[in-house]
Structure formats: C-alpha cells, structure tokens
Amino acid sequence: MRELFVIDEVAVDSSLLNRKFACDLLKCKGACCSLPGGRGAPLLGSEIPEMEAALPEVLPLLSNEKRNLIGKYGFYEGDKGDYATTCVDDEDCVFVYRENGIAKCAIEKAYNDGKVGFKKPISCNLYPIRVSRFGGDILRYHELKDCDPAVRKGESDNVGVIEFLRSALTRLYGEEWYSKLEIYAGLKPVEKR
Predict the structure, then answer these.
(1) Is this structure's pTM higher than 0.90?
(2) Predicted pLDDT of residue 193
C-alpha cells in the first residue's frame, strides 16, 4: 500500500513526489484522449455549464460525426457526481479532433485560440494524475502504457509529474496549496519568517 500525505485536506499519493513525467505527443499520439473503455473524461458538475457555453466555438472544430453525436446524445453522460464526456466507438472522447495523427482536444484549441474561457476538463488537464473522492480529494498516479514515452521524457529532462502539472494543480487548488506541495516535495525551500 502506498503512503498518502495530506495538504489542506487533499490526500496525495507519496509516489507522485518521485515520478518523472513530461508529455511527448509525437510519440503517444494523444492516447489519453482516446482511451478504450467507453467512458470519457471525468467531469465536475460545475464544468458542464462552462462546456455548454463553449459549444458554439467548439463544434465547428469537430467532425460531422461528432457534431451529430453531440446533437443527438449530448456531450456528457452519467449521474450527479459521476459525469464523464461521451465517447465515440467506446474510445475517442467526443471532443477529440486529429491533427497530424495526434488526438487533440477541440475545447483546448478554442481556448488557445482565445475563443472560449474554459480550457478543458480539469481531469484532462491533470492527467496522468487522477482525483478520487473518498471523504475528500485523493490524488493518485494513473499508470498507462501509452504514457511510457512521457515517463522516459520526464526522466531524460528531469521533470517530475508535480512540476509538469503545476498549472493544472494550481488551477484546481490554488497557488498557496501548490507552494505547500513544492515545499513538501523538497522542490522549494521553507520560507523563514
């Protein structure tokens, strides 16, 4: 059993402190956006209205098949507390488009182009960290064979998963929380007062 430590009521798998990780899209081809299994990215209930608001800018970036699927079934499924994006053929997230053979997120493209204010679901932004909820958030590493190139790149570039996901962790928990994580991980000295 892996050990957990707690920062402001968020439990963190201690193995995250030593994990190296830096996405290598040219090698993984965006595998995390098209995982087999029929269930897409986990969604917070609060993200659904933001995604609905982004749809007018996002839909033109998608294939006719995906636009039709969203029109017919919607872009998410599940019950309160267990929402996820819908998938195409039990694999691609409905928001996936391909560019040079790489699966990419249409929501993130619209965000990067300055057309929407919502970047993408936090679960996508945090990958390969997954958030479980059991009386509070628990952060764990999700092992995916397709991410082996990211592990090798992280090791080669000496980039830890915590450092790689700084903006996502800060987006979810704030700068102060992330600063405490850095101190705990030994990435930042303790400030003396």
Answers:
(1) no
(2) 58
The values of phi and psi at residue 106, to 5°, are -65, -30
- What are the sequence ranges of the domains in the chain? 1-21+128-193, 29-118
Q: Is 60 helix (H, G, I), strand (E, B) or coil?
A: helix
pLDDT below 70 — which residues of the chain?
A: 1-2, 38, 189-193
Q: How far apart are CA 28 and CA 135, in angstroms?
A: 34
**How far is CA 173 from its chain centroid?**
14
Strand order in the sheet with 83-85: 42-43, 83-85, 76-77
**Rounded-to-integer distance, Cα 168 and Cα 133, Å:** 18
What is the full DSSP assignment across 61-86? Answer: GS-HHHHHHHHHH-SEES-TT-EEE-
Are the C-beta atoms of 54 and 76 separated by less than 8 Å?
Answer: no
For 144, list phi and psi in degrees, rounded to 5. Answer: -140, 120
pLDDT on residue 187: 76
Q: For residue 174, what are the contacts with CB-CB under 8 A and spacing of at least 6?
A: none
113 vs 111: CA distance, rounded Å:
5
pLDDT digits 0-9 by tens, 4-56? 899 999 999 999 999 999 999 999 999 888 877 768 899 999 999 999 999 99
